[in-house]
Amino acid sequence: MIRLYICLLIIVHTTCFAETDTLSVTLENVKYPYPVNFIKLQSEGTDLRMAYMDIKPANPNGKSVMLFHGKNFAGYYWTDVIRGLSSNGYRVIVPDQIGFGKSSKPLIHYSFHLLSRFNKQLLDTLGIQRISILGHSMGGMLATRFALMYPERTEKLLLENPIGLEDYKTFVPYVSTEEQYKTELKASAESIQRYYQNSYFPEWKPEYDYLVQIGAGPTKSADFPRYAKVAAMTFTMIYEQPVVHELKNLKVPTILFIGLEDKTIVGKGLLSREEQAKHGQYKVLGRETAKRIPGSKLIEFEGVGHIPHVQIPEEFIKALLSSLKK
Q1: Within a domain: residue 17?
Q2: 255, 158 Cβ separation under 8 angstroms
Q3: Is residue 186 part of a domain?
Q4: Residue 86 belongs to a domain with what CATH number?
Q5: Would the keyword Signal turn up in this protein's UniProt record (predicted)?
Q6: By CB count within 10 A, which of 51, 165, 220, 316 is most buried?
Q7: Average pLDDT along the chain
């Protein structure tokens, strides 16, 4: 197979990766913006490898930030944020959660509690005692759980268009993991592109194409059934393990970064148009959530969808740096 290497210029950085007819389910043929390391873990008698990038700044300020990716992504989409933080003295830790990206894809019981413990183990291994955590989308739910479990390790909680600001199981019809698995198996490059274009950005631009190419790459892999099974299991995790009812218990400084055009609902396709219109309205959810979290701060972005750090990287990083310094 001939591999074509493409470099996509995205605002202020260049991300290079191998475009192939097929990507492995652990993305071996996707080049990340910084060197990738692995930590060995274990769960349910299964040996695991958790991938992560550890970017040390040239002029350290003594502080660290950990980035938690969303469900349909991994560490590769944080390039602008890493560079913005690193150039301002922050050490940046970027894990691919177990079940995602370059990390192992085990068939285990997935929980935000377990993933939080894995991330604590990573910090313990790196000798980092306190850290600010930026969580996007599903990563926002995970970051919230981490902060609830380990407030003494969490300097600041930074939530970028987190999902889970509603309790989905109260209005989205239940589907079993097996039923969701059958849905995941139907994924294709076309369906993924359509979903990304309709769900993540108010207006699609060519510089977003790499997200689709990487997201769709594993669908033709021989190991795709395992990949789809894990995707179904993590869908169930999100559905069955809400954090919204515990937001009031957060005891760490919290900042919400909300793109106001976001209308994300986990399980949106299971709802009627009338029900869809009642939920996932981040221009409302952001403000409601800020009221639930004691002492939190809300930063809103007009005309921005689900991924502010990709759609408006310069504006997002400026807001992020300002929030970290206060």
Answers
A1: no
A2: yes
A3: no
A4: 3.40.50.1820
A5: yes
A6: 165
A7: 93
